[in-house]
Amino acid sequence: MAGEAEKKPILEMVQADGADDGCVTFVMHNEDHTLGNSLRYMIMKNPDVEFCGYTITHPSESKINFRIQTRGGIAAVEPLRSGLNDLHDVCQHVLNTFQARVNEFKEAQEQPMD
Fold it and tell me: Which is higher by pLDDT, 38 or 8?
């Protein structure tokens, strides 16, 4: 319909003609340095990754270009997927640890001091 706004995909994969699957640029919409730097760090820990970096195209645009190059014929999608999963696990650990400490603090506040 003419009145509906067209939805952009959250993630686009851009690959040069003739390039192998180990060298890909991913365009992530509605993201910034918060995800970009954290994800780059997690992906660079993978020994099969030769290069990983990102750029923000312009400060007024909320998208990042995320480039991954791999060694040994491994598709660039695999380190991206495992990096996202690893980052999710780290964030979940931080959240669980924080919540446990908040609960400990609240319980300590409820107990009378001797």
Answer: 38
